[in-house]
Amino acid sequence: MIDPKRFLYAIAAVSAAAMLASCDPVNPDPGPDPEPKPEPVTKTLSFVLPSDAGAGKAAWAAGDQIVVHGEYAAQQVTVTLESGDISADGKTATKSVEGLFPYVREDCTSTLYAAYPAELVDNLKHCFFYSKFKTTSQEILAAYNDAEDAFHFQQICGAISFTADEAYESFVISANKKESLGYEFMQVKLTDRELNYKQYCGTPILDLDVKSGSKVNVIYIPAGTTISGGITIKFRKNDEFARVYKSADPIEIENGKVVALGDISAEICDYVNPFSPDIKDLDASGNANCYIVTAPGKYKFKAVRGNNPNDFLADASSASVLWESWNNAEEVVANSVVASAVYAEDYMIIEMPATLHPGNAVIAVMNEEGTILWSWHIWVPQTEIVTRNYGILAPDMMDRNLGALVAAPANEVAPVESFGLSYQWGRKDPFPGPATPKKSDNATVAGIQVTQTPGEGTGNESKITLEQSIANPTLLGHAQNGDWLDPTTNDLWMDSEKTIYDPCPPGYRVPARDKNQPFHSGDLSTAAGWSESTTNFVFTLGDPVAVFPLCGYRDDYGPGTFTHVYDRGAYWTAYASADSKSGYYVNVRSPGSAHKLAEVGKSRGCSVRCVVE
Asked: Does the pLDDT of residue 67 top 70, yes or no?
């Protein structure tokens, strides 16, 4: 028996990030070439499989090929086993091998190294005591010779096994948290030297594509891999993914061990393919927290945080429509704005009704426990959204408030459908606008209703954390003349760039504060195009005129209801005060009281007029 303390061997690290940190595709330089180089020799070699096969090879078979090498790949020998070489139990094969060039080192007793299977071996010019494999997604074995020229092979991988009630054509297995399941190549060191090992590996493999399937399947994965978020297996039929299995259970891959999932048939479900050609991309021009939909059909977008296309939600499991509104007091029919929402393959997929109903909806993705991980606003306008430059801000601006179904007219009474949605400063999620003019009630909602935290402490304060706001997108935190957030920060929206919490659609953002522009001046009434109408309940500004409804705001004293509907306008900028309690907004009080850029507590629910990013 070989003393296990006499050798060290390389295994894959526990995750893609950790593995990459330790990987280097270049061989180490152990010093100058040994001189003189050994002469070719003939040796009788024994190749011994592990006594406990586990997930690996249980017995040698005629035709098996093993690579044996010393220092140089050009001098390696491929040994092909014949039936007469193999012992009765199949565990040992003995064969006389010619043309061997042992690698002699004073600090290393082993002189030859073996790797199996030969078709996966891709050694570089200088092997030293490394064996390079083309991939780690198949079974690989490595060994060094002992004093008797016996190679006791070590398994470099472990495995996952499962059975299914039918044989699928093929399948793809991936880790739910984008963790590596192997490498495009890996060099492993296996020697009797009492030194710390180092491994060299290539690009991580995130998806293992098993080209043939059966009722019993074994998938090899480098030992030491931790799959912390579980796995997804997609099964193909007729060259298309048809079924899927998903588990959130963590998996640890150990050398030579099998993680047996058992019979997973009952947990295999129909697969929703986000890559189907009949599902249109909503994020072709970028990712955001809001998407505009103007036609029936199926749509998809990456389930990522805000405008960061790589910030995936690793624990995502399911999706739901949280609420829908028609932006008025009418009773809302459930699923009239968004018919359904599902999560599949890092994508949110929504289906719109055959007949669109203008309105707004918020959809969310949840983990296995049902906790909301992120949510998005789906905006279905009644009329086409127009973007132009009105001469009041440097970038072009939308013709309506964020979430408004129509643009407010300049010479008619502004309808409640032109008001749009309300936002607390820094939050990505909208809240319904007013239901009726001159009243304080919220627009009617189908689904989860708006709630607010109980007022506790001085100034009716009841703040929430950022984590609470994400997990509860219909929950309002509040503080009189202050921030809804604890601890407070000015980074949720920023003048300098669009953030992951910006509520505007792709290509748009909350406007940056620009005190040199008419819309953010100290007195809007001095700018071109200024007018205010106490009969039509709008103010206008610019050339051509931009129309802003006086739709009031959600009070920061108790943000459950609206105030000053039809005589106040409140429009956020992305800029916050130095003390972090307030945000800057355009404050219009009609008639004639104040028309200027000002500060107000971030808890207030104001309108947003998006500008081109």
From this structure: yes
